[in-house]
Amino acid sequence: MRDGTVAADPRFGRLELFDPASRGFQIRSVLDDPGVSLRSAAGRYFLPGPTLNQANEGQCVSEAIHDARNGSPVRTKPVVTEYEERRWVYHTLQHLDPWDGCYQGSDCQIEPSSTAYGGTAVLTGALYGKGRGWWDEFRWIGAGSERLEDDLIQTLRTVGGIVFGIPWLDDMYETTPSGLVEVTGTIVGGHAIHGWEWAPRQRMRHHWTGTKPGVWWHNSWGSTYGVKRRGVSGCGFVPLDDLLGLLERDGEGMVPLCLN
Known about the structure:
Blueprint: H1 20-23, H2 28-31, H3 60-70, H4 83-94, H5 122-131, E1 137-142, H6 148-158, E2 162-169, E3 187-203, E4 211-218, E5 227-229, E6 232-239, H7 240-248, E7 252-257
Antiparallel strand pairs: 1-7, 2-3, 2-7, 3-4, 4-6, 5-6
Helix pairs in contact: 3-4, 3-5
């Protein structure tokens, strides 16, 4: 990580970078503006995918922004399935972010450096996607939002998916057999992951009586993670209260927007 500590799992590649100018662009400004015309989800979900495995690379930001492009109203091209291309984007992001070096260190053919590190920032991925024309603009939810819960729900219901940059706890590595993400334990790293479906009344009879609200997200750890949801593998369900708790712990949510 940038503070010199090393995550035990190299897949944790989300590095915190809160640009005050960009973070001032809250999604609430869009939700409250009737004059803004979006190519929106209009209450529907858009299937993410494909389910790839980032293996031992810290390229979760690259995986999450590809997922946002491929599985939301901002989709402009056919899905990208090649792992190598996503790793190339990850490497590119590291040379766009404000930190010296990259995961290849002195072996890098772009800009060799004595500094080798894993991961990058969601902000860097958001700017890259905008520059490539994957989306026209982006906004944020998370720390600093005055209406975090409503921002989260209304975005998933009416706009589209969210790229979450969150702390990852040690009980979150695997879901339960039903797909539940248990948000307990100590922080083991930072992760970027794409939330794509708002589920206001999710039943999990082995865990609670009745229903709970929450979000289905799509991970980049291969098909063995989580469960299959609407035909897409690698998915997990995180209850709303738990997700809000992660966002309140210096988490963030990037919302790509495609303007009509």
